[in-house]
């Protein structure tokens, strides 16, 4: 019987701005993406993808999982709906860039920081730790930085 049934991820926008999310290892990357967006109080209304390159031209990542991979059969991206968390993230320390909203380009670094076991009757995914206040998804263009 497999005892590792959850992954604990840190999704961070900056070093001291992150959310730790626990999710079942059999959840899809689409469900994980929704958990990240929800943890930061964003609306789930934009395209997104997971990219193996953390910096530079992420579109040249050797491994990519994107929302519309099922629709666009000509690309090299894999499906977020058909890929399980355990397939995309091999072990503790595995990292990817989660790009949310291709226009505004919210770039989250996601890293496996722990493994766990599902607790009976617990709801997953769940946010298990937070650091920093989530930014406004759509900042007021009239406000000064």
List keywords for this structure.
145 residues, Structural Genomics Hypothetical 15.5 Kd Protein In mrcA-pckA Intergenic Region, Chain A, 2 helices, 34% strand, globular
Characterise the protein shown here:
The protein has 2 helices and 8 strands, in the order E-E-H-E-E-E-H-E-E-E. The protein is globular, with a radius of gyration of 15 Å. Strand 1 and strand 2 form a beta hairpin. The N and C termini lie far apart (52 Å). The chain has 145 residues and is mainly β. The model has no long low-confidence stretch (mean pLDDT 90).
How do the helices and strands line up, and which of them pair or pack?
Elements: E1 6-14, E2 17-24, H1 29-39, E3 48-51, E4 64-66, E5 78-79, H2 85-88, E6 95-100, E7 106-116, E8 126-131
Parallel strand pairs: 4-5
Antiparallel strand pairs: 1-2, 1-7, 2-8, 3-4, 3-6, 6-7
């Amino acid at each position: 019987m497999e005892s590792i049934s959850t992954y604990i991820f840190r999704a961070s926008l900056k070093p001291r701005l992150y959310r730790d999310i626990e999710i079942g290892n059999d959840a899809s990357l689409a469900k994980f993406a929704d958990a990240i967006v929800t943890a930061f109080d964003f609306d789930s209304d934009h395209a997104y993808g997971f990219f193996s390159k953390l910096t530079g031209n992420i579109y040249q990542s050797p491994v990519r999982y994107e929302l519309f991979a099922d629709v666009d059969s000509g690309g090299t991206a894999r499906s977020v709906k058909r890929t399980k968390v355990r397939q995309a993230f091999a072990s503790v320390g595995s990292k990817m860039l989660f790009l949310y909203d291709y226009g505004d380009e919210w770039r989250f670094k996601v890293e496996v920081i722990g493994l766990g076991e599902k607790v009976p009757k617990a709801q997953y995914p769940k946010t298990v730790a937070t650091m920093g206040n989530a930014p406004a998804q759509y900042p007021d263009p009239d406000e000064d930085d």
